[in-house]
Amino acid sequence: MIRRFYTKTALVTGHASGIGAATAALLAAEGAQVVGVDLAQGQDVADPPLWQELAAELANIDIAVVNAGIATAAPIVDLDFADWRRTLSVNLDGAMLSVQAAMRAMIGHGRGGAIVITASIAGLKAEPGTAAYAASKAGAIHLARVAAKEGAPHGIRVNAIAPGGVDTPIWDAMDFFGQMVADLGSRAAATTAMAQMATPLGRWATADEIAAQILFLLSDAAATITGSVLTSDGGYSL
Q1: CA–CA separation, 210 vs 20, rounded Å?
Q2: Staple 168 to which of 18, 112, 113, 193, CB 3.0 to 4.6 Å?
Q3: Which residues are CB-contacts of 237 (< 8 A; sequence separation ≥ 6)?
Q4: Taking a C-beta distance cutoff of 8 angstroms, is the pair 192, 167 a contact?
């Protein structure tokens, strides 16, 4: 395996499962030292004191993958405001604080760096029942664009990736998905059915595939790419 990130230090939020776990594993395999932040280890990315506590540990980072997120599904008329606030808090406040910490570290050491924010196709394409999640991801996309302009003078590239369906634990929070699993008899059957209904390619991406795309955006091969949104949705948004 090519070790593109040998000697690099990487921050990965939401590293304990799904896309975050796949990305952290691939970065480590390619030589990076990975600092993981995850609610599973008692770390809330939307908590400002957390980032103050981590400042020294993150002072030397070259790479940041801003990936931590949660999902809520409900029509606007039924959406509990506490669920709205928590989704926006983790997915957008947490993303801002993560990017802020990464940019401060990269500006501080003067070597620049690369940041990728895991957004979602929901931030670009409206669907009923996704108001909280979609709004948070739309905000994350524009956060990446603003951060790209602010980071450019310091040699910091910032991009977003907008996956469509990916089979990760985030779907378990969706009542409709749980019903599909019950109706079709298995998680695999439910994910296959959703992908075939929604995507021209007829399948969802795997977490490993999204991780590989994130590493491309972090790599020197993407040295002139900043402020972009890589859509990886099997054609769902066409």
Answers
A1: 10
A2: 18
A3: 121, 124, 125, 164, 231
A4: no
Q: What is the pLDDT of residues 161-215, one digit of tens each?
A: 999 987 766 666 667 777 777 877 877 787 788 778 788 998 889 999 999 999 9
What residues does each domain of the chain span? 9-166+205-232
pLDDT digits (tens, 9 = 90+) for 139-161: 999 999 999 999 999 999 999 99
Q: Which of 51, 133, 204, 236 is catalytic?
A: 133
Express the helix, strand and coil content of the chain in percent, nearest 5 each: 55, 15, 30
Q: What is the pTM of this model?
A: 0.92
* pLDDT value for 170: 67
Distance of alpha carbon 157 from the chain centroid: 16
How far is residue 12's CA from residue 36's CA, in Å, rounded to a whole number?
5
Active site residue 133: yes
